[in-house]
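FAQ: What does the model actually see?

It sees only this:
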Amino acid sequence: MSILRPLLLLVAACLSATALAQSWPTKPVRIVVAYPPGGGIDVMARQLAEKLTATWGHPVVVENKPGANTISATDSVAKSEPDGHTVLMTTDATFSINPHLYAKLPFDTQRDFIPVTMLVLLHQLLVAHPSLPANTLDELIKLAKAKPDAINYASYGSGSQPHLAGEMLKNKAGINLVHIPYKGISLAVPAVMSGEVQLTFAGIATSTPQLKAGRIKALAIGGPKRSPLFPQVPTFTELGFPEVETHAWFGLFLPAGSPREAVTRIYQDTKKIVEDPEFRQKQLIDKGYEPVGSSPEELAAYIKRDSESRARAVKISGAKAE
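And it is asked to produce this:
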């Protein structure tokens, strides 16, 4: 009997732990995407929703809530019921850039959210119109020094990733490039293709078809290593400009107070999707994404470092938003 009792207690503990793990979700889960339908982050959200629906046995629905540089979606999730059934899917703009760009936000990114996982990293390319008489970053810098104010670059607004990268490049290279802000992320690359502007910073997924068609050319890429899709394009780091941050990332967050089992389940189950060999290759790597699948603790630590880096970039750029 003395041996049987501990075994029974162990079985009971295991059953209790299993029941706890299965206590969430209890209803449909909503992924609030801070961007419009059709973009890369929206497509990824819908792919995740389909797979998580099958895993959890409850519907997982995607709700697009664009507007105010991700603030609309973020605020709505911050004020939602913290039961683990409302998830924010957004980019680095929300947590690394906006706190330094806006004098006041309707939420506190550190206090009001629980980081769950970073899904992917995206390293942006510095791309140019084919007519620009510069095929390398060094040639661009020499051209900009020889012709001050003659070269311009597009962004999708003050404080956007291309704007911060462009201003950091200007600062570190000692050159001047004229900033031309557009009203949306989808307008910058077409502006370079048409010759309205000469340069922009754009993600691989957006740039690849145009690069292959010869409508634009790539001079450099962000990140610590070259992209396997464009191994001939050197990184800013190897060219001597590690401070030029051109990355973005997609991540999942829950409102503060959400149950720990929800955090754990979302992290573990999305990590399995990101690490699935077929999904990883076809839906991520082949499209220019760097798969991550970080833990909540790893994402929190990354945001701290990323936020400090972006704070310096915002200060150098002089960008402000109301």
